[in-house]
Design brief:
This protein has 6 helices and no strands. It has 150 residues and is mainly α.
Length: 150
């Protein structure tokens, strides 16, 4: 096996963050078609994903898809071009958004009914995932690639 250079940890972190954001964007894009999987209907989907009744319509979902894909692009671009301030600031914005969602998720653990699908999804999936992704995005934002910076 040939020796391959090690992939820097911030690059792996960026790929993780961008992959999750892209999968989330794909799910939201799927829901613009009117499909409600994994829920039975729009209302159930809304309550499972958001904990409240919000329409899952293209005018609401498409801007979110664009935001998620833009966020993924900023995080990946930061690993390819570590010096441009725009990519660092964009990655810090992604970090802030993920951290804010994680903090909100902790609040919702005390503010929402415990018997709902949203409560349990928030407890075991949404909040921990956002916290992990926020830390990973921060690692990417703070990365200074000495080899590329020269």
């Amino acid at each position: 096996m040939p020796n391959r250079p090690a992939i820097p940890a911030p690059t792996r972190a960026a790929v993780l963050v961008a992959s999750v954001l892209t999968v989330d964007a794909a799910l939201h894009l799927y829901w613009t078609t009117g499909a409600t999987w994994p829920a039975a209907d729009d209302r159930s989907l809304s309550y499972a994903v958001l904990g409240t009744d919000v329409p899952f319509t293209p005018p609401i979902l498409l801007p979110l898809v664009a935001l998620l894909l833009t966020a993924a692009a900023f995080v990946l671009a930061r690993t390819r071009r570590p010096r441009p301030l725009l990519f660092r600031v964009g990655t810090l914005a992604v970090t802030a958004g993920l951290a804010l969602r994680a903090v909100a998720g902790v609040f919702w653990l005390f503010a929402k009914e415990t018997g709902t699908a949203f409560y349990w999804l928030n407890l075991v999936l949404y909040t921990p995932l956002c916290a992990v992704l926020a830390v990973a995005a921060l690692r990417v934002a703070r990365w200074k690639d000495a080899a590329r910076a020269r």
